[in-house]
Design brief:
The protein is an alpha/beta fold. The chain has 2 domains: about 5-30 and about 305-465, Aspartate Aminotransferase, domain 1, CATH 3.90.1150; about 45-305, Aspartate Aminotransferase, domain 2. The protein contains 13 helices and 21 strands. Helix 9 runs parallel beside helix 13 (about 425-440) and helix 10 (about 360-370) packs across helix 13.
Length: about 475
């Protein structure tokens, strides 16, 4: 199967959705950075496994033994996909967020003694670019220090150097995104790894955005560019069945108590003690998402067969095409890299606004009158988006007041389009056509805002969703 064949196997690709004028149109999904649809071969593989499904580990029945074999074969396949060796554990979680929280729970930073005899928190070095999932968990572990971003939204490498030098001997971890879910920037993670290791720190990569679009290699532990921790999710990789992965340095998880305990985590329990199993079982409490693991393993095989080169070439062509068309519209403001010739060095994630219009209103019109799915807001990266938009501290405080008063209608943000391996230039043409209609104020509906939700709806229009799906 080549990329063209795989593109034709998106589940729901031809589904039509209702529009405000009473017609229907084929849905255009430009929200792949949030979640991708699944693929027919993945769906078929899940159905194929369904007749053999049973719980894994310790079952003596044939189906349980088969399911256990499938589960561990999938783990091995995923380990090879990211270049993990015997020094790393592949731990299954619900998603990237849970994976990072699991790591933060177990991560032990040494408390640094100062001359005055006081205890000083160790430093977790991260960036302003981060998704909240790679920011909030670390606040419980140590002192979070942020690397600044440049005006174009990229990580400020000079500031990184300054802070590594300033906190040398105190940094225990650099936690950073492989790629931004707002601007599509790809960070030089192996370079960062080498710089972290040079000062005695480790590195953790949030690869949720990177994994579907670029090859990953954690490299051997004795390589200065080794990635100590890597987290990613299947739901952004055409396998939305509820599984995530943490690839982790075993040393952090071989001692101490797991974050979740119970069935499957212990070798033996009495009324006063428990002895934990070896990795990875000690970190996978309860019955795991076996079907989700099967789905992810099948996607990995498909991606490897098609090849990342084909995916990168296709998505870069889309990104370049979109940037050229959007740049020709003077009312459109693009955040981040606007250069179409640099599309191969970034992901197909573009954040934009229409001058003088609320991002939530534009997104609503795109949906109700164009059948185009985008995402709007701050994309769980509030500090980054506020920085890109130039929101001042006083303006941010004013927004906070409104939110606390249950009014989300004034939240700053952007509109985000994000491409997958199946999107087309024709879909970009349609997006720009509808966007032009919005800019010219030729949309049909009268839109009202739900202040508590911060969302716009066309007045008097309702959709009976039970006509499309029901239990």
């Amino acid at each position: 199967m080549d990329l063209k064949e795989l593109q034709a196997k998106i589940v729901g690709f031809d589904e039509e959705v209702p529009l405000l004028d009473g017609t229907k149109t084929r849905y255009i999904n430009f929200d792949n950075a949030a979640s991708t649809p699944t693929l027919l071969p993945v769906q078929d593989k899940v159905n194929e496994f369904g007749k053999w499904y049973s719980n894994v580990h310790r079952g003596t029945g044939f189906k349980s033994q088969l399911s256990s074999w499938v589960f561990e074969e999938a783990r091995n396949l995923i380990a090879r996909f990211v270049g993990a060796d015997k020094n790393s554990a592949v731990i299954f979680c619900k998603n990237t967020t849970e994976a990072i929280n699991k790591l933060a729970w177990r991560f032990q930073c040494p408390i640094i003694s100062r001359m005055a005899g006081e205890a000083e928190k160790p430093v977790i070095l991260t960036s302003v670019m981060e998704h909240h999932s790679n920011e909030l968990p670390w606040r419980k572990v140590g002192k979070v220090v942020h690397i600044n971003i440049r005006p174009d939204g990229t990580v400020d490498h000079d500031d990184l150097s300054t802070k590594i030098e300033k906190y040398k001997g105190k940094i225990c971890l650099v936690a950073i995104s492989g790629a931004s879910n707002v601007t599509g920037y790809i960070n030089p993670i192996h370079e960062y790894a080498e710089r972290a290791h040079a000062v005695g720190a480790q590195i953790a990569i949030d690869a949720a955005q990177l994994a579907p679009h670029r090859p990953m290699n954690v490299k051997p532990k004795d390589d200065p560019q080794h990635i100590d921790y890597l987290a990613f999710s299947a739901h952004k990789m055409y396998a939305p069945y509820g599984i995530g992965v943490l690839v982790a340095d075993k040393s952090v998880f071989e001692h101490g108590d797991p974050d979740y305990v119970g069935g499957g985590t212990v070798d033996i329990v009495d009324l006063e003690s428990a002895y934990w199993k070896d990795l990875p079982e000690r970190e996978e409490a309860g019955t795991p998402d076996i079907v989700g693991v099967v789905a992810l393993a099948e996607v990995v095989k498909l991606i490897q067969h098609v090849g990342f080169d084909s995916i990168v070439e296709h998505e870069a062509a889309l990104t370049s095409y979109a940037l050229r068309k959007l740049s020709a519209m003077p009312e459109v403001l693009i955040y981040g890299d606007k250069n179409p010739d640099n599309a191969r060095n970034r992901l197909g994630v573009i954040s934009l606004n229409v001058a003088g219009m609320d991002h939530a209103l534009v997104s609503a019109i795109l949906s109700y009158e164009g059948g185009i799915g985008v995402r709007n807001g701050c994309f769980c990266a509030h500090p980054y988006v506020k920085s890109l938009l130039g929101v001042t501290p006083d303006e941010a405080k004013e927004v906070e007041k409104h939110i606390l008063a249950r009014d989300r209608s004034k939240i700053p943000g952007t509109i985000r389009i994000s491409f997958g391996l199946y999107n087309t230039k024709e879909e970009i043409d349609r997006f720009c056509e509808v966007l032009s209609m919005i800019i010219k104020k030729k949309h049909r509906g009268k839109y009202v805002v739900d202040k508590e939700r911060g969302e716009y709806y066309p007045e008097g229009f309702q959709i009976d969703f039970s006509q499309y799906f029901n239990f």
